[in-house]
Amino acid sequence: MKALSKSVILAAVSAVAAVSLTGCAGVPAQLTRLSFIPANQSGPQVVLTNADPDGLPTYEFPAGRSGSLELEFTGPYGNATGLGKCTLTWANVGQSSAEPTVRDGSYVLTYDLPGGVAAGPSQTDLECDVASGANSGTKYSTSFTMTGIYEYVYWSAGDEILRARISDAIETADTFVSGLSQVHAIAVYGDHVYFTNSQGIGRVDLDGRNVDRDYIPLNKSPRELAVYSKGTGIAMTWPDPQPEDQGPPYVRLPVPADYIDALTSRGQRWYMAFRLPMPGMAVEGAAPKVIATGPATGLAVIDRVPYWSSARTISRLDDDKTVTVATADHKLLDLAYDGKQLLALEATDITPVLMAFDPISGKRSLVGIAYHGKGGLAVGGGEEPVAKVRIRNQKGDLVKEIAMPAYGSPEFREGTQIRFQIENFGTDWLQVRSCSIRGEDAAAFTITSSYLCDQIPLAAGQTTTTSLAFTPSGRSWNYRAVVRLNGAINPRGYIDVPISTSWTAPTPSPSGSPSPSPTAAPVFSVAPSSHDFGTHAVGYPSESMTFTITNSGTAPMTIAAGGVTLEGTNKDDYDLVPGACDEATLAPTQSCTLDVLFSPVAVGNRTAQLQVVTSAVGSPHSVTLTGNAVAPALSFAPDPVPTLDVELGRPPATGQVMVTNDSPETVRIASINLTGVDSAKFTLEAGSSCSVGPLPAGAACMIEYSYGPTVADLTGDYTAAVGVTHNGAGSPLEIPITGKAIPPIGS
């Protein structure tokens, strides 16, 4: 592992359109959730958030990866009503039409993304037919911009390929593929990394597995390589020689190999910088342009505008003219674009480094050390070690549902166990935190044996068996349930295994015991039936509310294991303590309780549902939860507060914290105190300007404190907090402070 550090964390630069939906019904609505769901369980679901909360919203997704985009949005009447077919049009990607599904009061539309979607901003248009209601026959639409951001950077180290994650301030650069030779060029497309080496053109999966060194055998290593979209597949281009009958489609380049300086691709085109017969730039399908490029060392494309590195400068083509974008301190070896910034491999006097350049201003910053970098720079998606799950039936066949024969058949008699296999075909351990059975007939199934449900991890490439017992409720029925495994399972953190079978009740003997009354049935009731938690500050939980669930029927009511959950758009703003209701069976008139508290994470009206899965009619049952979240009245800076380092026995060190009233109203401070286990080690100083009394809107005051360990104290960290009690939202304000006792110099 090699340490890779940044001195500057780069900010987003994309400008996008607003994402408010305005239907002809005149009711304002909005996108409530956007998610990227990787294909083939290759990573966790990514909830896309607004990257610029102070300006126009923008949504960034992992570019180049196969997967799907999932949009949740309200309808023209403020809920999931009124809409028919919707069409999502993504510029430079494609179009998809479908009837949206409904989930938790919102519409859900899924857009399948092919591998290789390019980085950078792209406009997306959503248009739906209003199919019912007063505005039937009108359109309901919105436009916004999705920005694809590449996650990883790859570079050649001669006999190996190294990789690092771009977004982290401190990262580790790993050897991605070793045992190669003469690696000159790298290209990332879809779910593979392509590279040139002494055997020709090779490729490897995004997780570093399944290395094919001679995917296209050439017995030599081309200096440049470009991989791009071509219809429903991919195409490649590289300097001569190129085979006639091997590999994917390719395009011969119009310039001899010795004259080509750099190649890259964008969308369905390749771009090339060449030196002879005259310096120029060529694009597939367009006439070559003669421009003053100089000998190019790298090439990147942003919105069809070529950028290239040459010696110590980065230039771009602007109306067929060369414009200098940035100047480096050392020779630039290669260039790439990650969707936000230009990345360049720079050869310093000590070791190659990876630099970032703003494509507009040219401002440069250090990304990290590019150990042994020789060129061959590329950006794209990547996979870390991950568990992946497949379900097989008892015969070992891959299935999506465990469908058993009916009870009473020769193959499946009453008392036979239902078994299925769980296979981990990924690259990391599979760890399951909990197992539950969900659905209307969940009470009829019981997990009797499962290593995974006992929290025993499953190694990559291994398979384990889970067994269930089936106990029919006494009625003839087609029984269905779902076994849910929660844990490190991509992309949603769980996997559901549907189970189905049927059972026919035996005909009772005339002399037998009387059958139970057919009218006996459980009835679900809950009190209160809804609850408004009122107004609370973000980060300041409410008092818990107790809900009482009662079986008001005449037969036992079963609450499924894991059947008490929080659902809805703002479910993360609430916390649930299931209590005695989790996996409970309630006799008639019997009750159980559970607690919910409002713990908002964002400002606004936050709505969710408490959902309970039972054996009673109407399951799952929902209880509406509402609350209003506001910003805390007071804030402090700096956040975090720096640690005070003091030698044992030396005079105390002093720290200062600024407290600001961010609310529009005057806030009255009631008290300022030190709290926490080590509060005796700290002192509030008389120089503080914060005091008991009013603090006007927008005003700020300063709290001064000191930390001074004695010679008798142990070395190490000491923690406390300054508590500011006030009458505004989010009281008390807790300001964490720390001190560190260090040995005397020379000890």
Strand count: 60
Report the portion of residues in β strands.
over 45%
Percent helix = under 10%
Global structural class:
mainly beta
* Low-pLDDT sequence parts: 1-28
Mean pLDDT over the residues: 83
- Cα-to-Cα separation, first versus last residue: 34 Å
Shape: globular
Biggest sheet record: 11 strands, mixed
In DSSP terms, counting alpha (H) and pi (I) runs of 4 or more, how many helices?
0
Rg calc: 32 Å
Quick structural overview:
It is built from no helices and 60 strands. The radius of gyration is 32 Å and the shape is globular. Residues 1-28 have low confidence and may be disordered.
SSE arrangement:
Layout lengths: L1 E4 L14 E4 L4 E11 L7 E3 L10 E4 L4 E7 L9 E8 L3 E5 L2 E3 L2 E8 L6 E11 L8 E11 L2 E5 L4 E5 L4 E8 L8 E4 L2 E6 L2 E6 L6 E6 L8 E5 L2 E5 L22 E7 L2 E6 L5 E4 L5 E2 L7 E5 L2 E6 L2 E6 L2 E7 L3 E7 L4 E6 L4 E6 L6 E6 L5 E6 L8 E4 L9 E2 L14 E7 L7 E7 L6 E6 L12 E8 L6 E11 L6 E10 L20 E4 L2 E8 L7 E7 L5 E11 L6 E4 L7 E2 L4 E8 L5 E11 L6 E10 L3 E4 L6 E4 L5 E9 L5 E9 L6 E3 L8 E3 L4 E8 L8 E11 L6 E10 L5
Parallel strand pairs: 5-12, 36-42, 44-51, 53-60
Antiparallel strand pairs: 1-15, 2-3, 2-12, 3-4, 3-6, 6-10, 7-8, 7-11, 9-10, 11-12, 13-14, 13-34, 14-15, 16-17, 17-18, 18-19, 20-21, 22-23, 23-24, 24-25, 26-27, 27-28, 28-29, 30-31, 31-32, 32-33, 35-37, 37-40, 38-41, 39-40, 41-42, 43-45, 45-49, 46-48, 46-50, 47-49, 50-51, 52-54, 54-58, 55-57, ...
